[in-house]
Every structure is written in structure tokens, then in C-alpha cells.
Design the sequence.
């Protein structure tokens, strides 16, 4: 499973250091059963649907995609 947990926002700074501009971040997955203490309650049925809806509403998740574009420097002679 996960060794680390990342928030998408730091990727903007990290990619900017290497000349990338983030075009879009998409939260692609959420596993409510991993939430401490209440995860087992959220595994099925209506509680899971509510948890998934809330995670989409607030942009939460443990899997995400970052789309970035690298711009080449414009050099004139």
C-alpha cells in the first residue's frame, strides 16, 4: 500500500522548479476504508456513497493525476 501520502499542491512547486507549468490536477481515486477509526463503517452502501460524494466535493483522494507542460526557453541571437 502507500508508503507516503501526498497532497497535489506541492507538485506545482516541485514541477515549477524543473520548468513545468501544471495544466490540470485530477483526483482519480479515493479509498474511504483507509480513513482511521471510521473506515470500516464506510466500506459499503450509503455511507460509502456519501464519503465518495464528499471527497469529490472537497477534492480529496489518495490517487491523483498531474498534467504539466514543459516550456522551452525562448532564445534569440
Sequence:
Amino acid at each position: 500500500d502507500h508508503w507516503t501520502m501526498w497532497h497535489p499542491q506541492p507538485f506545482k512547486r516541485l514541477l515549477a522548479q524543473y520548468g513545468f507549468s501544471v495544466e490540470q490536477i485530477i483526483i482519480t481515486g479515493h479509498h474511504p476504508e483507509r480513513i482511521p477509526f471510521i473506515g470500516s463503517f464506510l466500506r459499503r452502501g450509503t455511507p460509502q456513497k456519501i464519503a465518495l460524494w464528499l471527497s469529490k466535493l472537497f477534492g480529496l483522494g489518495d490517487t491523483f493525476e498531474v498534467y504539466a507542460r514543459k516550456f522551452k526557453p525562448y532564445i534569440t541571437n
